[in-house]
Amino acid sequence: DMIGDVSFMAGGFPARFGDKLSAVMDITLRDGNRETTDAQLDLNFAGFGGQIEGPLGKGSYLLSARRSYLDLLVKAVDVGSTIAPWYGDAHAKLVFNPSTTHRVSVLAQFSDDHNNPDAQAAVDNDMQYYGPQDIYNGTAGITWRAMWSDRVFSTSSMSYTGMWFKEKFRKTGSNDDVFSNDSQESWISLRNTTHVRLSETASMEAGFDAKGLWNRYENRYAAMPDALGMPQPERLFIEDVSSVLLGLHTSLTVAPAPGLGLTFGLRADHSSWNESMEFSPRVSASYRLGALTT
Question: Are 87 and 113 in contact (CB under 8 A)?
Answer without folding.
Answer: yes
